[in-house]
Amino acid sequence: MMSVRPPARGLSRRGLLASLAAAPLWAQPSRRWQELRGEAFKFADAATEFPLVRLTNPAYESYLPPHPCRIFGKKGDFVLIASRRAGSLQAFRLEQKNGEWRQLTEAAALDPRSLNLLPDDRGLCYADGNAVMLGRIGAAGRDREVYRTPDGWRREPGLAITEDGLYAFVAESREDRGRLQLVSLVKGSAATIHEGKERVEDVTPRPKRAAVSYRRNGDDGIYLADFEGKQDYRLQLAEDGRATEGIWSVDGRTLFYLHIPSERGKLNAIREFNPDEHKDALIAPTTQFVAFNRNTDGSVFVGASGSKASPHVLLVLRVTRRELTLCEHRATEPAASAPCFNPSNERIYYQSDREGKPAVYSMEVEKLVEKSEP
């Protein structure tokens, strides 16, 4: 996998992992890595009768971190979630095989939108209040604070890391200012990529490139900036509407996004933009998608409809531009449902408060989507 980084370099990835291993131990007994029994519940969806699995109990809050958080193990054998099962909001590892839980953090103010596995599947990066933290999964040492948003600024929800695991992107704001920080997870230093009047949202690193896409609050477009902030411009996406949910292809060549038309009655659509060639193309119209994600090769998409009459999770096939209804999500906030595929594309996951508090659901789609090697 190609590493991308600014000119200034710190330690290697090996050095980063060594620094985590050297962290001090907790002074009192820790609940980290304690094993909790699985609570998976299988049932048939009311709309399609397809089998569904509710992985968490809706009696307490559980959240599926949204794209671009890296939440699946490389082999797809576990997924990261945030949950209040143990009382306070903490990160957990959910085992695919037996449904067992493992607590990973003891955070004071965990951001459920910030959980990211490091490339070796043994390191964890997340936000605890205004701090960016690093930890080792299953290790007894204290997680290490590598960066803290300075006084006078507040960290915006979410956290994204580069595919080599050496840098994190942190959006910060104060009063009428917003900025995007590139943080070295080795040295803890930060460089400002963008600063302006609007808050920064939906930060997504571009794979195989030293670049990142993001949105500005109140702006209809998506922007692209390099790691040094020398290039920072709005992408020439489809007009007559707004762009949301930017998701890069695996190779970083193209950006998939949702186009929400300005004119009432027109359908939301998945589109694809190539920044190097400045080409924009329609992938498929949708049943009012408000959240979506792609499979590995971008041939199939999973999305959540914002329609109150048809609150469904659906698949869209790129080649036919046809939809297949999988199940009802019935979420009060469909845009926060975070639908996604696991690494092998055999399963989809999403979040919904259909039965009470937010819970995480899963469905097998191996008979509908071609398997990909994790």
Describe the structure.
The structure is a single chain. This protein has 374 residues and is an all-beta fold. The protein is built from one helix and 31 strands. It has a five-stranded antiparallel β-sheet with strand order 1-7-6-5-4, with no helix packed on it. A hairpin with a 5-residue loop joins strand 29 and strand 30. It is globular. 43% of the residues are buried. The N terminus is likely disordered.
Concise synopsis of the structure shown:
The chain is mainly β. It has one helix at 13-21, and strands spanning 35-36, 41-44, 51-54, 62-63, 78-83, 90-95, 101-103, 116-117, 123-128, 131-136, 144-148, 154-155, 160-161, 167-174, 177-184, 190-196, 200-206, 211-216, 223-226, 232-234, 241-248, 255-261, 269-274, 279-285, 289-294, 300-305, 312-317, 322-328, 340-341, 347-352, 359-364.
Model regions low in confidence, pLDDT < 50 over at least 5 residues: 1-10, 22-28
Over the alpha carbons, how many angstroms does the gyration radius reach?
A: 20 Å
Number of continuous helical runs: 1
| Overall 3D form | globular
How are the strands of the biggest sheet laid out side by side? 1-7-6-5-4
**N- to C-terminal separation?**
14 Å
Compute the number of strand runs: 31
Helix content: under 10%
Tell me about the biggest sheet? 5 strands, antiparallel
Q: Which class best fits the helix and strand makeup?
A: mainly beta
| Content of β-strand | 35-45%
The chain-level mean pLDDT equals: 92
